Amino acid sequence: MKLVYFSWIREKLGMAEEDVTPPEHVGTVGELLDWLGSRSEAFEKVLEHDKVIRVAVDRVHIDDHATPIDGAQEIALFPPMTGG
Amino acid sequence: MKLVYFSWIREKLGMAEEDVTPPEHVGTVGELLDWLGSRSEAFEKVLEHDKVIRVAVDRVHIDDHATPIDGAQEIALFPPMTGG
Amino acid sequence: MSVEPTIRIQQQDFDLAAEVERLTQGRRDIGAVVTFTGLCRDEDGRLVALELEHYPGMAQDEIARIARQAIERWPLTGLTAIHRHGRIAPGENIVLVIAVASHRQAAFEAASFMMDYLKTRAPFWKKEHPADGSQGEWVEARSEDDSSAARWED
Amino acid sequence: MSVEPTIRIQQQDFDLAAEVERLTQGRRDIGAVVTFTGLCRDEDGRLVALELEHYPGMAQDEIARIARQAIERWPLTGLTAIHRHGRIAPGENIVLVIAVASHRQAAFEAASFMMDYLKTRAPFWKKEHPADGSQGEWVEARSEDDSSAARWED
Question: What is the pLDDT of residues B34-63, one digit of tens each?
């Protein structure tokens, strides 16, 4: 699965995207974030702000971290939007 | 004093304006309307719609028929506005 | 420094882009421009034109009064209102309001307020010219316009 | 017949008058055109530019979703939303929304709704470029924008 990052999350991680293969036990958005936090210090620091981190699964906003990620192709992490 | 008429009031009266000198006892907008109604049949017919007739004294909307007209130069009578 | 509104009553058409440019050119403090353009409709083919009658001596002053209320109420950086009179065909412009501000809410609300008050306070009257050649009627005031204006009262 | 909104995500500027013309030309059933243009402010000289980052794969789809909601909710005859990305200087355009309808209330409300949702749902992020050459900050989301969007929820 592809992960894509935007705004200060992209800057803090030092990359715009990466391909990952989460272990079997990672089944939801919340579990994915926890697993990503356990993989790197940079990600752990990003997750200190996890209250404001927004997630899109296959380019659709996800409000509930219990949402399954089974079969997802692209998961995006970004801060609250400031366009318009 | 000059009276000016607009929209269907102008059409029903058959004139856009006239100069009048009301008698002494006509001191308010309401009294002016009554006096005008007593002067002509055409005006009496217009006054059948007096609930919707709007009045401007010297180019300012007047909501209260008890408003004095003493010293007024131009009094306008028109139906509710439909611009915009 | 108080904003000086642009108010025009005219027979000829107006140019939306030029009027926006007048309010924004050279400025770096504007965040939001809201424009409202009102056009003549043919009412499903029923009309060939509207005739806009107005009270020349009062129209400019009354719209200026409405504009001053908007400027006092919202932090605007610019405000324009142009109202046409005379015969206007379907598809043609009737009225333009532009409200300019740092933030969008002020611009949206001021433009909406201006239109509600133009509808109910500016001395203009519309007469219909029917497509079938019959004698046209004067457009009746809509009670929705009064209630729309009333929502701005405190 | 359902209205097909025009949605564009682009680096280059847009032309307000041309976009209005696209929605109104040749029509006789339109009574109201509301446009919102959002511009870059210099924040009292503090900024030389904003950088607009976006999520290319999602931005178009998300704005189209918002537009469909507006079209379902109000009787519109046309709807356009254009959002720029990249580096934008103070005084330049960022975003354009145009809502067209028979009556003004639908046009005003739909344009305002579109902007509230573009602010809070469209995947764009603004970074400041300060005039003093320092490292710019990412603009923080405003809670007013969330509450402004929340007023449209039933």
Answer: 999 999 999 999 998 867 899 999 999 999
Using an 8 Å CB-CB cutoff, list chain C residues near D107. Answer: 36
Tokens of D125: 């992020």
**Using beta carbons and an 8 Å cutoff, which residues of D are at the interface with C?**
15-17, 20, 24, 26-39, 41-42, 44-45, 90-91, 102, 104-105, 107-108, 111-112, 115, 148
Residue keyed to tokens 């926006």: C20
Q: Do the chains C and D touch each other, judged by at least 3 C-beta pairs below 8 angstroms?
A: yes
- For chain A, the 3-state helix, strand and coil shares in percent, each to the nearest 5, are 30, 25, 45
ipTM passes above 0.90: yes
0.80 surpassed by pTM? yes
> How far does D136 lie from chain C, in Å, by closest CA?
19
Q: What pLDDT digit, counting tens, does each position of C93-147 carry?
A: 999 999 999 999 999 999 999 999 999 999 999 999 999 999 999 999 999 999 9
| Structure confidence by residue, pLDDT tens digits, D33-89 | 999 999 999 999 999 999 999 999 899 999 999 999 999 999 999 999 999 999 999
Spell out where D30-104 has E strands: 32-39, 47-54, 76-84, 86-88, 93-101
For chain A, say whether D148 makes contact (Cβ under 8 Å). Answer: no
The edge-to-edge listing of strands for the beta sheet with B17-19 is B17-19, B2-5, B74-78, B54-57, B60-62
User: CA B66 to CA B71: how far, in whole Å?
Assistant: 15
Contacts of A81 in chain D (CB under 8 A): 119-125, 141
**CB atoms near residue B67 (< 10 Å):** 17
Q: How distant, in Å, are the alpha carbons of A64, C17, C92 from that of C84?
A: 53, 17, 10
Catalogue all structural domains in chain C, each as residue range(s) with its CATH number.
11-150 (3.90.1170.40)
Place of tokens 């178009």: D60
pLDDT in tens, C37-77: 999 999 999 999 999 999 998 999 999 999 999 999 999 99
Contact B84 C55 (CB under 8 A): no
Nearest residue on chain C to B62, alpha-carbon basis? C121
Fold classification of B2-78 is Ubiquitin-like (UB roll) (3.10.20)
Phi, psi torsion values for D149, nearest 5 degrees? -70, -35
Which of the four pLDDT bands, split at 50, 70 and 90, describes residue D154? Answer: confident
Domain ranges in chain B are 2-78
Q: Cα angle at C55 between C54 and C59, to 5 degrees?
A: 90
pLDDT at A52: 85
Mean pLDDT of D109-130: 98
Q: What is the DSSP string of C34-56?
A: EEEEEE---TTTTEEEEEEEE-H
**Can you give the C-alpha Rg of chain D in angstroms?**
16
